[in-house]
Amino acid sequence: MSIRIATFNIENLIARFDFTGFRNQLRSDRVMKLFDIKSEADYQRLEAARVVSSTDDTRQLSALAIADTGADILCLQEVDNMEALKAFEYGYLFRMIGAGYRQKYLVEGNDGRGIDVAVLMREETRDGEPIELRDVTSHAALTYHDLGLYHPGLGSNIQPEDRIFKRDCLELDLRVGGRPLTVYVVHFKSMTNGRDGADGRTSSMPVREAEAKAVRHIIENRFGRDKASQRNFVICGDMNDYQEKVDVIGDRRHGYDYVVQSDLPSALDVFSHDGFAENAMQRRDPLDRWTLYHARGPEEQHLCQLDYIWLSKGLAAANPMAKPDVIRNGQPFRTPFPPGQEVERYPRIGWDRPKASDHCPIAITLHLP
């Protein structure tokens, strides 16, 4: 008996307009900056038209990428609310795959923009085994003080009573064909601008490390520290960190070289350093583990894995040959692919947009012992 699990940062599945760009240039879309817009009312009308005109293409591409995962359980990040999720599933996914993800779960979390983690599930697997929800738990209210994770290195703007998770850690207790499976869905702190002379990834890493420790605490508290790694659990989501990256050197005109940098310091060492959980993406070739292309001009560009399905030690041992699939067909044409990885992009994919997302969905088929 097997089940297929996927995770995808769908990027801004939002059911509202953001008009703050009129007063805050950092929040204004680049195309709006090309025009001299005199009044806020004019800005609102133009911004609404821009968003509506671009959203349909974007969501069709997102739905295509999800359909290609073939997932029984789909973990999503950056979902505005349940109504937005329902509208997307019915208006887009249903048209791609028919009746499928009838079980939907989302709990409002801590993100200031209102983007949450969510789960879509089929009622049964492709093999006909029932997928039953026993319980769903949000851990968004946990504070640094609750788990003893506060320290000054988190930053001067963080206090002991602040909530640990920047969004949530959503826990789903499932039975699949009568066998237990627990799914944890997260979206860790983003790599923001640097401070105190450190780059954004380094300066924000203590917060992600605290989030990872909190996830591990939740799991060990539930199953017992000595037994947890042998239970059937997966940790899914956009973790905004990586343990390795592929530097992309060059440009379109002269071509690219790809250089792997391994064993980088990472908040995700909390999961891997003692074998508590396994990143099954490590079973793929080092040049073929990436889920996102990052670029700030030709001098700073790399491929890295930000999206994960961590397997418990026991689940990894029961699935020694299982490798995640990475769906890259929704990537924009600006994303450079290492040799041999080229795919046929979906129709209407652009140089930068439209696109399915900056992130690639990943999916893995697992046998539950």
From TrEMBL:
Endonuclease/exonuclease/phosphatase domain mapped to chain residues: 66-359
Signal peptide bounds: none
InterPro entries from the UniProt entry: Endo/exonu/phosph_ase_sf, Endo/exonuclease/phosphatase
MF terms in GO: endonuclease activity
Keywords of this entry: Endonuclease, Hydrolase, Nuclease
Entries under Pfam families matching the protein: Exo_endo_phos
SUPFAM superfamilies tied to this protein: DNase I-like
Protein name: Endonuclease/exonuclease/phosphatase family protein
Gene source species: Peteryoungia algae
